Amino acid sequence: MNIPAELKYTKDHEWARIEGGVVYVGITDFAQSELGEIVYVDVATEGEELSAEDVFGSIEAVKTVSDLLMPIEGEVLEVNPDLEDQPELVNNDPYGKGWIIKVKPANAEDIDSLMNADDYNKLIGK
Fold this sequence. Notes:
The protein is an alpha+beta fold. The chain is about 15% helix and about 35% strand. It has helices spanning about 30-35, 90, 115-125; strands at about 10, 15-20, 20-25, 40, 50, 55-60, 65-70, 75-80, 100-105. Strand 1 (about 10) and strand 2 form a beta hairpin. The relative contact order is 0.26.
């Protein structure tokens, strides 16, 4: 199970990485492995201001659909355009090419309130 130390995590299995004032958000390796084969990613909140834990979209696997929750408050700037034709990127590269959205944080320090890799490993029992 790949849980990169440089990322932050939520109890709902999203990860967050800040780069140049923009926060990239996706689902963890654990989450994608639990969901199975991802067949569709639906995000219709581009341009919207959302609070932490608000639903920003959904992710559909062969057997289930799960909500995607904002890790921090902010504006959804962009949805990963590659996921429209290649939703399997979430399975194959959840922390790289499989990112789901970019967020302009309302407060960049909010990311510090998320779990670190050690805490996330404890959450998932690793």
